[in-house]
Amino acid sequence: MSEALAIGAPTVRKREPGRLWIVPPAALLALLFFYPLALIARQAFLDDSGVANVAEIIRVLNSRFFLNALVNTVTISVAATAGCLIVGLVLALILAFVPFPGSGFIARLIDTFIALPTFLVTLAFTFLYGSAGMLNSGLMEAFSLPLPPVDFLYSTWGVVLAEVTVYTPFILRPLLAAFSLVDRGQIETASVLGARPFRIVRQVILPAAVPAMIAGGSLCLLLTVNEFGIVLFIGAKGVITLPLLIYGKAIQESAYQVACIIAVVNIALSLGLFGLYRFAAGRLGA
Questions:
Q1: Domain assignment of residue 280, given as a range
Q2: pLDDT tens, residue by residue, 16-67
């Protein structure tokens, strides 16, 4: 009898707790991210009457100012990322495997660059390497030179040097974490067997650093592609990147459709690099 009652009783469906909690974050993302993104895309692809303006898109993408900005963006980001990888690897090897007093303090000091605004580094570079900076003033006074001998700051290489200084900690941190997991016994064994330091670095240490370098390098590439403050503050002549071009077209020239077309390209490039970073970090476990 009890079994029959149990079979005939209606099944009470349990409510899954928290299903509606997705609504607030989804609404917030839609309001603050997807809606502005949709407005940018609409302004880029449609004219004022709502018709697709393919001719304008082709004209902008084939224009000299866009192609120059794209080349500058890729060149600066790749060069800065390569510089960050080299400097970060050298610093990480020294801090992790060359014991000296104060190494921990130096590592924490380098980490503080992450918290500093990017314009502060460029301001410091202007005081040091600018036309009226300490280096040029000292050289002009010492050798009676009529013009500043050091003028690399207001060029592509000045932007690259500033970005390397700012973004190297994004490489250094993952590398130090990876090096902390290296078996020191393998290093000692290789050293006892007569392996030279460069061979130990190449065959024992670097394989452990590859995942961290790929993940950190992808992140640096993403950040340098979207860097705006350093390029604007240095004011290098002829060095116009995609973010700076968007700013110029939108704010200075009021060419909003052109700015939105370039912004869509910049967003697509950024999302592609972010996908590369997530893939590298997830696949390699960095």
A1: 51-284
A2: 556 788 888 888 888 888 888 888 889 888 877 778 888 899 999 999 999 9
DSSP string, 119-186: HHHHHHHHHHHSTTSHHHHHHHHHHT-SS-S--GGGSHHHHHHHHHHHHTHHHHHHHHHHHTTS-HHH
CATH for 222: 1.10.3720.10
> How many domains are contained in the chain?
1
CA gap 190, 183 in Å, rounded: 11
Domain membership of residue 7 (yes or no) is: no
> In whole angstroms, what is the distance from residue 109 CA to residue 91 CA?
12
Report how far Cα 245 is from the mean position of its chain's Cα atoms: 18
Nearest to residue 222, comparing CAs of 74, 72, 27, 71? 74
Q: Is residue 122 situated within a structural domain? A: yes
pTM value is 0.83
Whether 29 maps to a domain, the answer reads no
Helix (H, G, I), strand (E, B) or coil at 46: strand
**CB-based contact 178:286 (threshold 8 Å):** yes
One-letter amino acid for residue 161 of the chain: L
| Cβ contact 228:14 at 8 Å | no
